């Protein structure tokens, strides 16, 4: 046999082994995909059974695992949680989470509203949205990154519990990101066109608001593990918090903490843009302090259009420089 005859045979053998190798890899991948799908179903069933055993009703209705072979998708028709012993209930619309084969540890989830909640001491709520998407980068023991983006948010009292539901708020867009930083948790978020209904804040009136924030919850990783139910004893470092409406803007930075009695302590630096516009908004929102606010901010405007001053809160008593702002009620 000549060398010219042997070359096609070698090429055919190489092609055969390449095809065989690809088929073996595909068989291993397929086995892994279906094993993981069965594991998701079984673990979901176990989690629901464990909750039900403890007197809690929870479910992911019509759980489906699909997407083979190019993705891994977990979906439910709706999510529900009900704990009769604590009189807590929550439910949402359909849930759909997708992890692409090229990024298996970065799933993206879509959730349909409304979110309905019932918690002791609070009016049942109905929160809805046009779109809500969550993403994360999985790691152990905590995700390296969790993000949430929503458009067309709105909230009201649940019409099922009130024949004439009360509108609470609406917002054009909202987003938030959380990620561990050593033992702390970093937060970065924003919202735009937030409108708070007067009925939700005792008849007070606020204009549409935009905001952005960058802060750190101290010891946040440990707090997640202990399932903290209170803000008391917690500390937050605010790197930058901006709240604006039109030309009025308030920027805040500094530490804030809540003591064991729920009283707030803070040592913040406030930067104002257009103090007279800020005073007009605060005067409408806090009419009982309107004259003091107008006088104080008129004096501030003499320092320029962007004055800075300290905001002190000591055991719940707040003051902005020399302007008393009143007492903040203890938080839970």
- Uncertain runs: none
Derived structural class: alpha+beta
Sheet with most strands: 20 strands, antiparallel
Number of strands: 20
CA-CA gap between termini:
89 Å
Shape: elongated
Number of helices: 4
Approximate strand percentage: 35-45%
Overall mean pLDDT stands at 87
* Helix share, percent: 10-25%
Helices and strands, in N-to-C order?
Answer: HEEEEEEEEEEEEEEHEEEHHEEE
Radius of gyration: 27 Å
Describe the structure.
With about 325 residues, this protein is an alpha+beta fold. It has a 20-stranded antiparallel β-sheet that branches. The protein is built from 4 helices and 20 strands. Helices cover about 25% and strands about 45% of the residues. A hairpin with a 6-residue loop joins strand 8 (about 115-120) and strand 9 (about 125-130). The chain has helices at about 5-55, 220-225, 275-285, 290-300, and strands at about 55-60, 65, 70-75, 80-85, 90, 95-100, 110, 115-120, 125-130, 130-135, 145-155, 165-180, 185-195, 210-215, 235-245, 250-260, 265-275, 310-315, 315-320, 325. The protein starts with a helix and ends in a 5-residue tail after the last strand. Helix 3 packs antiparallel against helix 4. It is elongated, with a radius of gyration of 27 Å. The chain has a domain at about 1-110.
């Amino acid at each position: 046999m000549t060398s010219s005859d042997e070359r096609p045979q070698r090429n055919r053998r190489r092609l055969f082994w390449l095809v065989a190798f690809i088929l073996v890899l595909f068989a291993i991948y397929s086995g892994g995909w279906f094993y993981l799908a069965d594991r998701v179903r079984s673990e979901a069933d176990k989690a629901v059974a464990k909750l039900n055993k403890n007197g809690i009703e929870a479910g992911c209705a019509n759980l489906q695992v699909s997407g083979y072979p190019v993705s891994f998708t977990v979906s439910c028709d709706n999510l529900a949680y009900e704990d009769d012993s604590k009189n807590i209930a929550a439910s949402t619309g359909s849930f759909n989470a997708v992890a692409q084969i090229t990024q298996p540890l970065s799933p993206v989830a879509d959730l349909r509203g409304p979110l309905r909640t019932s918690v002791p001491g609070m009016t049942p709520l109905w929160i809805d949205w046009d779109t809500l998407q969550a993403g994360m980068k999985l790691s152990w023991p905590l995700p390296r990154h969790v993000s949430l983006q929503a458009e067309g948010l709105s909230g009201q009292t649940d019409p099922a519990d009130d024949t004439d539901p009360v509108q609470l708020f609406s917002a054009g867009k909202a987003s938030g990101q959380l990620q561990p930083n050593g033992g702390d948790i970093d937060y970065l978020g924003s919202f735009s066109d937030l409108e708070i209904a007067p009925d939700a804040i005792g008849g007070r009136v606020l204009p549409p608001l935009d905001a952005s924030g960058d802060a750190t919850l101290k010891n946040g990783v440990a707090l997640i593990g202990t399932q903290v139910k209170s803000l008391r004893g917690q500390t937050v470092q605010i790197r930058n918090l901006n709240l604006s409406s039109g030309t009025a803007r308030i920027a805040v930075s500094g530490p804030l903490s809540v003591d064991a009695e729920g009283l707030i302590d803070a040592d913040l630096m406030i930067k104002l843009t257009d103090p007279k516009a800020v005073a007009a908004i605060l005067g409408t929102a806090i009419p009982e302090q309107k004259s003091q606010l107008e006088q104080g901010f008129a004096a501030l405007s003499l320092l320029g259009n962007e004055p800075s001053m300290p905001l002190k809160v000591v055991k719940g008593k707040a003051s902005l420089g020399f302007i008393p702002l009143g007492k903040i009620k203890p938080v839970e």
